[in-house]
Amino acid sequence: MTSTPSSVSETVAAIAALPKVVLHDHLDGGLRPATIIELAAAIGHDLPATEPDALGTWFVESADSGSLVRYLETFDHTIAVMQTPEALARVARESVLDLAADGVVYAEQRWAPEQHVQRGLSLQDTVDAVQAGLEEGVALAAAQGRTIRVGQLVTAMRHADRWQEIAELAVANRGNGVVGFDIAGAEDGFPPSRFPDVWQYLADENFPVTIHAGEASGVTSIAEAVHLGQASRVGHGVRLIEDISFDESHGTAALGQFAHWVRDHQIPLELCPVSNLQTGAAGSIATHPITRLKELDFAVTLNTDNRLMSRTSMTHEMTLLVEQAGWTLEDLYDVTATAAWSAFIHHDERRALIDDVILPGYQEIQGAQL
């Protein structure tokens, strides 16, 4: 990766118009602050701030603690206001519109239905409400001249005991917008081995799986997600870098056995730079493992994780990597194409996404050589 000051500024100027793919974006981590305020007022939920800018700042500052546990506590407020069909649909609809406005052409929205039944909804009710909102958002985006496709990633909470039930919910809705299954929440102490039968069930159902791993916990966590959980992708996976030894004086890298396995099998890593800085999984954008992993030919994808808590977008993530880590337009295309090839849709649909949308979008940028 090499760039000059002029090429950096030209690339940054082009980013907003680039087609983007996001595979790791939490629905309950992407609400508009104004929407939270309106929904909270309707149900009498107290917030730490009642003005949109101030509330948005509170979320970011709370998530900047460097602790994954405290980071996750910010979700108490977003989940509280997502307990009715109308609220779920609104949040889903607005999320699609915000992503589309950022140039996202394909997205997978992950969320945990079990966290949205506090006011009497069934699990199926929540899936239906979110799907209705996603479809409304896609239609509204199309009316604005923006094309986007969005699927649901149904998530089970690691600390709860409903993995099998949620997995069955996901499989039952594969024709209702659900494209995959995930587990999320506190990583330490709640590994995939808690409920090993779940992973065999999903494999038997030929149902795609991504597992949060390698964020708060290390290489062992990623290995269990891959080998026991049979994950097709790894959510985050940033700490895979711990299985690679670098000789800075000679510019070489020695991969451990598991790092070799991940690279040899091109298991996609759903990396989220800004979020990783907040949770302490990385120290800076310039030194974030995403760059070295990409240079070593791992299947790297770029993602937002939680747009509200990180005050981020795909444009923002790309811009930071260009400005602080030396990324080029070609690098941005590579991670976008990798994400498209890693999407939980069929092979022919992935190919069409790249050939008909992503590649032409990049080629429209003056001077793009791909």
From TrEMBL:
Keywords (A to Z) from UniProt: Hydrolase, Metal-binding, Nucleotide metabolism, Zinc
Domain of life: Bacteria
Record Pfam families: A_deaminase (PF00962)
Domain (Adenosine deaminase): residue spans on this chain: 19-358
Entry EC number(s): 3.5.4.4
Enzyme's top EC category: hydrolase
One GO cellular component, as annotated: cytosol
InterPro entries, sorted: A_deaminase_dom, Ado/ade_deaminase, Metal_Hydrolase
Gene Ontology biological-process entries: adenosine catabolic process; hypoxanthine salvage; inosine biosynthetic process; nucleotide metabolic process
Cofactor requirements of the protein: Zn(2+)
Entry's Gene Ontology molecular function annotations: adenosine deaminase activity; metal ion binding
Record-linked Gene3D superfamilies: Metal-dependent hydrolases
PANTHER family cross-referenced by the UniProt entry: ADENOSINE DEAMINASE (PTHR11409)
NCBIfam families reported for this sequence: aden_deam, PRK09358.1-2
Annotated family: Belongs to the metallo-dependent hydrolases superfamily. Adenosine and AMP deaminases family.
Name of the protein described by the UniProt record: adenosine deaminase
Species per Swiss-Prot/TrEMBL record: Oerskovia enterophila
